[in-house]
Amino acid sequence: MADSHSHDARPGNLWPLVGRAAALRTVMEAATQADVGGVMIVGPPGVGRTRLAKEAVTRLAAAGHPTAWATGTRAAAAIPLGSLLHLADVAGPVTGHIFGQLVERFSAPTGKRPVFVVDDTHLLDNVSAALVYQLAVHTRTFVLLTGRQGQTAPDVMTALWKEGVARRVELRPLSDSEMDTLLERGLGGPLDAVTRHTFRRLSAGNPLVLRELAQSALEGSALLRTDGLWHLGGHLRITGRLGDLIEAQMQVDDPAVLAVLEVLACKEPLGQPVLEDLTGHSAVVQAERQGLVMVEPSGARHQTRLAIPAYGEVIRARMPRAQAHAIWARLAESLAASPRRRADDPLDLVMWRLTAGLDSSGQELLAAAERAAERLELEVAERLATASGAADGGVDANLTLAEVMALQGRFADAADVLPAPEECDNDERADRRAILREKIEYWQYETAPAQGNPTGERAAEAVRAWTMLIEGHVAGSLSIGTALLTRPGPPLPAEATARAATAVVIAAGLMGDIRLIERASATGLEVASAHRIASPWTQAQVGAARCLALLLAGALTTAAKAVELAYREAVETQLAAPMVGVWAIVRGLVAKAQGRVKPAQQALREAVVLLSEHDPLRLRGVYLAELAGAHAMAGDTVQADAWLSRMDGCPPPRGALFDAWIERDRAWVAAAALDLSSAAGHALRAAKTAGKAGAPMLEALALFDAARFGAANEVCDRLHQVARDTAAPATAAFATMATALATDDAHLLGEAAERLHRLGHLLPAAEAAATAHRLHAGARRRTAAKAALVFARELLTECDGARTPLTELTGSEVSLTPRELQVAKLTAAGLPSRAVADRLGLSLRTVNNHLGRVYAKLGVSGRDALAQVLGQPDGEEPHAQELLRGDACRMRPN
Asked: Is the Cβ–Cβ distance between 759 and 730 less than 8 Å?
């Protein structure tokens, strides 16, 4: 199922033309205007001048224009007309004869206008340039020219656009969205956000560099398609082709400029004074003048970086090892002599020394390990912490090593290196050890969190608040977490504060207390913001908890806005892939709760890819189940079954709350197969589990699912009780819709649809409107039916492909009640009445009664006629044998 393989069709020479529609239109329009002699396309190397010219000449040739192509080169420029000789019938060495022959070739007075393309005009000899000028000015020929920006071209080429004979088109680097489009079309499928951003960053909008980077990654098997997404998972190997292309594009002949590029290849961005100390002021100026380096303001200072970061990859790969070691050593020496104010300075210093073969002290190694851990570069952090311990890093090195192992989910290894209590002889060390011990006790030894009798170790209590929440002790978690955040005393460590805040935030969401969500998240974010440089993941942890709590409390509109902003920021600020993966999970959960099934599927697939090697808390089963649920909401039973089967193969997540969440997804998978009786049973079990945990909002969500699966009568009273007990507006909307479904009240369904829509519950609102439409239509209330139909269609458009048992709007089935529609659909799919009765939990007599009313309402008799009336496009409706098979068979997606 996790299809990891390279592209079957490697990128060819011509990727799709993207981001050049306006430029192409200018060329095509100019070719039709007799008073325009041509177009000059100008841009930096690799930006797509030749690609645009090829596209234009292909279209002009298809329109009947005679075309010819020539390319300027340094070698051909040594010979007069050297780049154009292939176009002439060369009978002798006389330049004038060839010149006249070429002019005559392009001087036909009739027929379609000739088109002459000259690529790289800056490399033409003067005689060739004069001929091109002659054709543009004195013949009907349309000349399409390309030139490299910043390169001196023959004066007649410049004269063409300066004198207005030809139009000048300047190509700029592609935008981020255009690069994304080019990648997706060139590779034939979507990429995960981290891979997309990596390619964008390395290529800096240069389409040729982008294409060659992708080609190199494919050839080195670093770029693989996994679970439907292209993912850059390995080291990007620099192929000979990529290296030669980049070196030809840079055209570096000056050793001083090369020295500047080599330093920046080892470290960018780099402060301008540091770079000039290492390479000289004039060399930096010359590199900037050639467009190879950019100097940008950064606060009161200036930073230097490569114009295209991919240059650094090639330079570093081809740099002599001795030269690289010398540069790393000089960089380390310079940094060691500086104040080292940047958060990454300790890590940079040690890594540069290691690369140069130099030693660092135990304390320097420890500081570097701590920073690597904060950046979630866990393999590096473990290596540095181990080295620090071996170099007398002491108890702090062992604490850091244990923390790194715990972040990797290796709690047994963390227990082995955890220092003894007596070694942790100050408050900071004692807090760190207490936090670690609590994690190890819960995740390794699976010890249930203690309730009551707090130990006094406030840092450990913060972890305990979180583990109690997972286990379903919501009130206890809320009590401990609130006390930690409000009780006077020494300040908690940042991690402990974040854990206490997230426990309170999630507990508040489960209780439906939106005000408490915002208060507790503000407290956590205040502490996280103060440590955002040292611990960027802490801010993300609290922010993600807030989004999840808003989801639980039913405030989906607010949650959706917050998660989109946070997700984009995580990608753009280049947070570690696991952090982007966490935000992808939250993004997918919110989209699924809204009913936006395609965005939910995309986000959750991305999480699966980005977190494939990172699951320290055994949460993979949760988002795999959510992915199954998202496919079920689209009516895709094959994919839903497959993802659910994959979830069943994962280690089960700990905690009653996760059990309830997964049970809801099982309900949706059953509903997609039209097994509504089983679906309602799963939802009711989830509600019971959530109720025992004291999580009324999760209970309400599960009860609401059950109502949508046909058990509205069973859950109405409890839903109304939950609505009275919680302050969240969503529970009242759930109760209203459940009552309307139980009583077939079309007007009340319309009211519920409006309320749910305002809260961001798009799919339930669409289901309410669709059901109201069917009921109004059955009662012959045409105006009301039409209004409900319009609203339902608008909502389903927002849901982008959702298809549930309550969303049907097509054909004569609109006059059926929800239960009659369920019976009719199963019967039309080929199930006998007994199987329908078993599936829906009804008696055979009740099913036959429903069928009788269906036949009467639709004016048909017999199952064949019913199937024709309710017929679906090929491939949409499951066959009878698939429906009868039920849950016994799980299929893996392709």
From this structure: yes
Residues 6+ apart with CB under 8 A from 621: 647, 650, 651, 652, 653, 658, 662
Token reading at 35:
């008073």
The per-residue DSSP string of 145-163 comes to EEEETTS---HHHHHHHHT
The strand pair at 270-271 and 301-306 is best described as antiparallel
Tokens coding 50: 């030749």
Kind plus residue range of the DSSP H or E element containing 599: helix 597-610
Amino acid occupying residue 487: R
DSSP 516-552: HHHHHHHHHHHHHHHTTTT-HHHHHHHHHHHHHHHHH
Core vs surface per residue 371-400: b (16+ CB within 10 A) or e: bbbbbbbbebbbbbbbbbbebebbbbbbbb
Question: How do 38-43 and 166-170 pair as beta strands?
Answer: parallel
High-pLDDT (> 70) share of the chain, %: 92
- E strand or H helix that includes residue 306: strand 301-306
**pLDDT at position 855:** 80
CB atoms within 10 A of CB 13: 7
Residue 121 CA to residue 53 CA, distance in Å, equals: 13
**Class of residue 894 by CB neighbours under 10 A (exposed 0-12, middle 13-18, buried 19+):** exposed
Contact 24, 150 (CB under 8 A): no
Measured distance CA(695)–CA(693) in Å, rounded: 5
Q: Is 888 exposed, middle or buried (0-12, 13-18, 19+ CB in 10 A)?
A: exposed
For 454-516, the DSSP string reads --S-HHHHHHHHHHHHHTT-HHHHHHHHHHHHHS-SSPPPHHHHHHHHHHHHHHHHHHT-HHH
- Other Cβ atoms less than 10 A from the Cβ of 786: the count is 13
User: Does 451 have pLDDT greater than 80?
Assistant: no
| The pair of three-digit structure tokens given for residue 512, joined into one six-digit string | 């439906």
> Which amino acid does the sequence have at 852?
G
In whole angstroms, give the CA distance from residue 40 to residue 122: 11
- What is the per-residue pLDDT across 87-115, written as a single tens digit (0 to 9) for each? 887 655 556 678 888 888 888 777 889 99
Alpha carbon of residue 439 to chain centroid: 30
pLDDT in tens, 41-55: 999 999 999 999 999
Query: Of 255, 370, 394, 407, which Cα lies nearest the Cα of 323?
Result: 255
Tens of pLDDT, residue by residue over 141-197, are 999 999 998 888 899 999 999 999 999 999 999 999 999 999 999 999 999 999 999
Rounded CA separation 704/734 (Å): 6
**Residue 751 reports pLDDT greater than 70:** yes
Q: For the chain, what is the total number of helices (H) and then of strands (E)?
A: 43, 10
Full 3-state SS string of 777-820 = HHCCCHHHHHHHHHHHHHHHHHHCCCCCCCCCCCHHHHHCCHHH
Q: How far apart are the first and last CA of the chain?
A: 6
Peptide bond into 269 cis (omega under 30): yes
pTM of the model: 0.84
β strands within 16-63, DSSP E: 38-43
The whole-angstrom separation of Cα 691 and Cα 678 is 20
Q: How far apart are CA 207 and CA 209, in angstroms?
A: 5
Cα torsion 521, 527, 528, 534 to 10°: value is -170
Q: What is the mean pLDDT of residues 623-627?
A: 96
pLDDT digits (tens, 9 = 90+) for 763-798: 999 999 999 999 998 888 888 988 898 899 899 999
Are the C-beta atoms of residues 755 and 740 closer than 8 Å to each other? no
DSSP 8-state code for residue 86: G
**pLDDT in the model for residue 811:** 45
CA angle (14 as vertex; 10, 18 as ends), nearest 5: 110
